Each structure stands twice: as structure tokens, then as C-alpha cells.
Amino acid sequence: MQIQIPSNIMKTYISLSGFDASQILSLIVKYGIESDDRIVLIRPQNENDNRGNNIIEAVRDLSRQISSNIKVEVHRVDHHDYESMILSLTNLIKNTEGELIVNISGGPREIFLAFTVACLSQSQKINKTTNYSDIDRTMNEIALPNMTQNIDLKLRRVLNDVHENQPTTISEIASRLKLSESTVSRQIGKLAELKSLDFLPKGKSKQISMNLTGELFLLNN
Fold it and tell me: I need a surface site. Which of 59, 68, 202, 214 has the fewest CB within 10 A?
């Protein structure tokens, strides 16, 4: 079986991983794999089922039959912490160089959801996205929409300050950025409309913290 394709660009496959290696095989047959390409399997941080390790070894054995230089890595996520999963998977996608092919089918449902959100937030980084159909048992290529809104430099500057100093207040932000409190208040209001901040009472003012949406804005801008 010939599955290599001519390419000067390193490919990275990132795939959800259950207990069946057939989806990984379908990926590399469909798009080809060469020496120095990379396969990243997404798996739970803690798993006691030996089938998980068996799948990892099966993919490594398959890659070694093609080339000993193909890297097979495991990216583990804490399925109990939804936000940390999204941020971890978003960073994985964002920091991957070369051609990126992702498979959003397979694996535990809670990880599938976090990975799908991460892919949507980084759709501009992804070259191809695949989904394995449970209905007709075929691997299909799908198009991801770009659903992350861009924010301007002024809003990003304030959001960055909140990120680095949270929890904080409007007066503290204004002091650090050397802006008027009214200016900061307007920008905080815009960020609040984007649902990127959380607020808690602090005397007559409010403490401001960044939430997951804010984190994704910073990662994508």
C-alpha cells in the first residue's frame, strides 16, 4: 500500500483517540504521511483501561512500518476541567507548525466537545478537518467556520492588563495603563458585551477577572 505523497511541508495529524486505530489509518491513507511528519493523539490525563495504551502502541507500530522518523505523541487533558481542556487544546493547535490536519471524531464525548471548541477558535490555523461518520462509516472532510471575533488593540491592551493582574478594578487598570477611568470603563463595558469578563462586588466597585472567552480572545488576536 502506497500512502506517501510528495511534500516539502511537514504534516501534523491531531486526532481524538478512542479504542480503535482505524480512524488514524484512514487519515494517513487519505492524506499521506512521510518521514518527519507527526501524529498527536488526544487522550485523557488519567486512564486505567489498558486499551488506551494498546491504541497508542498500535499507532506507533504502524508509523514505524512507514518510517522510524515519524513522531507519535500523546497530548493528555484533564476531562474533569472543561476550561483547561479547551485552553490546552487551543494552545496545541496554535503552536503547531506546518500543515495541520485534525480529526474531530472519536474519543470520549467530553473531550470531543472541548476539542471542537478549540478547533473552531483556531480554524484559521487548520488546513484540513475530518469527521468519521457513524452512519455510513466513511471519513469526510468538513469546513470549519471562523467563529472567533477579533478585538481592536485598545480592547486587547485592557484585556491583557486584566489577564496579568486579575482580579483587578477599573481604577487599578487606569493607573497601570495611564488612562482615564472613564476611558477604561467604556472599554470594560465593550469587553463585558463580548462576555469576556467576570465581575464580583468589591465595596462600591467591582473586581474584574477574565473568563474562558477572554482567554480565547487573547489566544486568537
Answer: 68
